[in-house]
Model the fold of this input.
Amino acid sequence: MPGLVWPSKQMLGLRSSFGDENPTANSKVSFEIVKASLDGVKHGVKNLDIKLIREDRRYFWVYSDYQGWHYEWNDNEFVELTASLDIEKGKTGDVEFPVAWGNYRIEVRDPVNNLLTSTQFYVGWNWYEDWQNSQSGSGAARPDKITMALDKAAYDTGEIIKVNIIPPQAGEALVMVEGKHPLWLKRLHIPAEGATVEIPVSADWQQHNIWHQSNRVTVHICVLSCLS
Done:
């Protein structure tokens, strides 16, 4: 039978003042800290080592013969602020830090057993998180969400790409094949039940910003709009 395993008889716990929300940019964040045992008893501790760490991820573009153009990243960390905290027996402690925006992590180390507890959080508006949430569940974007499927994974020059497009409603669509610039573009009406669009593969598409192996091409197709 599975059970709860603690690495130590007494552990540190962290609770933020902002819950599951992102704190406002250029504001202050606070955390409640407790040292407790499995039976719920709160213990005292002195000289907790607390660090506010800025997590900085920088993206950059890389080209290779196998993957074509793709992005990679470097991760860097910077300790922005430090603090020391004493907590009395039966109580919790609080710490507050000013923050700007972006990814942060707070770490609290117990000098008695050297165990570390931490939590990550994002400050300010996170557009990527909002975009992810809009792609599924009740927050899914409507009527912009369009289902699209290709008949094959890759194509030879001269072949016909067949794209099956199913919109949330009938409307006008702008279908585009893109590389460094638009390679093929067509505006057409898509009925509510969907339609198959045929796109001829041109020899001009053999370029470094479209992934290809020998004469086979993997293309990027987007439907820019489907409005009634």
User: Anything to note?
Assistant: The chain has two domains: 10-133, 142-227. The first strand starts at residue 10 and ends at 16. The chain has one helix and 16 strands. The longest helix spans residues 127-134.
